[in-house]
């Protein structure tokens, strides 16, 4: 019986600990995500270098990521092909050869909270709708 109680306790602790570490952020609509981003690109990752954390306030490692731009929707003043992704639950896993829509902040960071998506994680129809919306927002932005 004690083993059964221990198993139940372990399971409850596991479930509660997973929820503590789950990504919690405010999600924005497409227009808000577009306006908040410094640069938005459809890109293929070409190189990832893991940089250990040097900061107690941000204890997660950083994935310094290089990419080839397939299509650009919004260019920032630092139009670059390097970004920095913290390795924690709110950032998608960055894999060489994968295609992403990167919503890049002015600090060159990304997060699921700001809109970044892995192409293969999104239903093809939804992905095409996202790309069409970005193209439309980009055209509107260029007209202004």
Layout: helices, strands, pairs:
Elements: H1 2-21, H2 30-36, E1 39-51, E2 62-74, E3 82-86, E4 99-104, E5 117-118, H3 124-143
Antiparallel strand pairs: 1-2, 1-4, 2-3, 4-5
Organism: Thalassotalea litorea
Protein name: Tissue inhibitor of metalloproteinase
InterPro entries: TIMP-like_OB-fold
Description:
It is a single chain. By secondary structure, the protein is α+β, with helices and mostly antiparallel strands. It has a single domain (26-143), classed as OB fold (Dihydrolipoamide Acetyltransferase, E2P), CATH 2.40.50. The chain has helices spanning 2-21, 30-36, 124-143; strands at 39-51, 62-74, 82-86, 99-104, 117-118. The longest helix is centred in the N-terminal third of the chain and has 20 residues, at 2-21. It is globular, with a radius of gyration of 18 Å.
